[in-house]
TrEMBL record:
It is an enzyme of class 3 (hydrolase). Hydrolyzes dipeptides containing N-terminal aspartate residues. One of its GO terms (molecular function) is serine-type peptidase activity. Its main location: cytoplasm. GO terms for cellular component: cytoplasm. This is dipeptidase E. Belongs to the peptidase S51 family. Keywords: Cytoplasm, Dipeptidase, Hydrolase, Protease, Serine protease. It is found in: Cytoplasm. One of its GO terms (biological process) is proteolysis.
């Protein structure tokens, strides 16, 4: 596989600016060969403002940025792109726009066959996986399918939150919600990425990076804790991993 992915849990970490906590990872990931990044702002309503924020950040890192919503032909913009960055916001709105603009297969081809770098944060990380079943967002619009780009054969839960032992809130914890998902048959692994964590995928190798850990959920198994530096390459082999 030629895929190169940087899947970030969150765009902003407490105490820092937009993409500040992962800017060194971005520069290392994109390298010097990439000169311009194609930004996909579909997850937020105000695409112009979102593009300005992203452009300012990427220009400060030495990269030009084109926003796909400014293109008269989004498919052609993907075909010509050197790298793709899909930002956060509402995952349902984002996925619907990807379908509406006929971009699912185009992005898959550019990333999986042509090997251009793909970066996602939050909702942009959600849509890189098999489906958006494990997003935290409300279904404010109705995409034609919950199936996403499928750049990796598992799901991710960005902004993963551990239970607060002092809280009196009686609703489901994030862990309980993921367990409910795994009560359905043939559901893939879910990687709970805490804020400050990201997954780097290079071909058939996946490595947890960032400053916080992750929690891995396999159907029928107890969740496991993992620190930055963990090799998650096994998640790329089999989408169900029932043999583990």
């Amino acid at each position: 596989s030629r895929r190169r992915l940087l899947l970030v849990s969150n765009s902003t970490l407490h105490g820092g600016g937009y993409l500040g906590h992962c800017q060194q990872h971005i520069q290392s990931f994109l390298g010097e060969k990439v000169t311009r990044v194609l930004f996909v702002p579909y997850a937020l309503h105000d695409r112009d403002a979102y593009a300005r924020t992203a452009r300012e950040k990427f220009e400060s890192l030495g990269y030009g940025l084109d926003s796909i919503h400014e293109s008269c032909d989004p498919v052609e913009a993907v075909r010509k792109s050197e790298a793709i960055f899909i930002g956060g916001g509402n995952t349902f709105r984002l996925l619907k726009a990807l379908y509406d603009n006929h971009l699912i297969q185009e992005i898959r081809k550019r990333v999986l066959e042509d090997g251009i770098p793909y970066m996602g944060s939050s909702a942009g990380t959600n849509v890189a996986t098999i489906s958006i079943h494990t997003t935290n967002d409300m279904p404010i619009v109705y995409p034609p399918s919950l199936q996403a780009l499928g750049l990796v054969p598992f799901n991710i839960n960005p902004h993963y939150l551990d239970p607060d032992v002092k809280s009196t809130h009686m609703g489901e914890t994030r862990e309980e919600r993921i367990h409910q998902y795994h009560e359905e048959p043939n559901t893939p692994p879910v990687l709970g990425l805490r804020e400050g964590a990201m997954l780097l995928v290079e071909g058939d190798k996946a490595t947890l990076q960032g400053v916080t850990g992750a929690r891995l959920f396999l159907r029928g198994k107890k969740p496991t804790e993992h620190e930055p530096g963990t090799d998650f390459s096994f998640l790329l082999i089999d989408s169900n991993l029932q043999h583990l």
